Amino acid sequence: MKSAVVSVVALLVILVAWPVSAGGYGGDDNDDIKSWFPLDNLLELDYYDKICPNFEKIVDNKVREWTKTDASLGPALLRLVFHDCGVTGCDASVLLDHEGSERRAPASKTLRGFEIIDDIKSALEKSCPGLVSCADILISASRAATVQLGGPYWSNAYGRRDSKTSYARDVEKVPSGRRDITALLETFQSYGLNILDLVVLSGAHTIGKANCGTIQSRLYNFNATKGSDPSIDPKLADYLRRKCRWASETVYLDAVTPVAFDNQYYKNLQKNMGILTTDQELVKDPRTGPLVKAFAEQPPQMFRQQFAVSMAKLVNIGVLTGEDRIGEIRKVCSKSNSRRY
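RESULT FIELD:
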């Protein structure tokens, strides 16, 4: 009885955060969006309407072109925006490519999608030279990829500037697949996000892959036992042991519906089929477990709706704007205009 009450309470928490459309491009009335989305830091929903009206169309078309050739680049773009916003804010610092930058940190070596951003930037420099930041491109591209993967649409506000600096040491701030829930919550709270955002954004693992190197510790000689993590479903563990002999191999994060943007991820967690340690810990922790249960038992649309809300919050973290003199609009996304490396 107590478990049922907790689940209902969790469900009510989710419903409170629901007032966002997950519709297609063209969206809802901006006034409705402003009622729940904090447009701080001078970001504007119509920022490019006059100065670069084809901005989002160019981004959408380029993302579609690239993902048509390689579907795995869609989840890669979503991961790329997490790694950008989760370090020093959504400032495109992850795109800078020089010795000692975030991009060259060991934890960033499996990041992909940089070539898509470069291609989009090149097209926009021809259409609207010097007007569109790489930070805005990355935010827009991640949404385009999400929608094209079958995920929800959310309205982006624009006007970000690009950072001029990037440091590999800062990558330690990005949540890893081996951190405990308390550490994850503390990280998310430092971003201004909450426990619901943590559970929902973790649901991005409904699509995409993990490098075997990140999970081998769960599969071979777990805690010096010479066996696998006993919390993994035995059949899944057997499959992963055979698949992950080499650290460079990859496995789907959702072993059941790997290319569908649905709530199967949460159902998997309830069956001990979480690929990453932090994923599986979500269902065990009393603070996050009821939310996992609620998303697993409710229609997929609930997850999709809340994912749109949480993403709209994430992409507004720590942005630089026109009033920030430390920011710029890069000519090339991998290089700062003002520094030579």
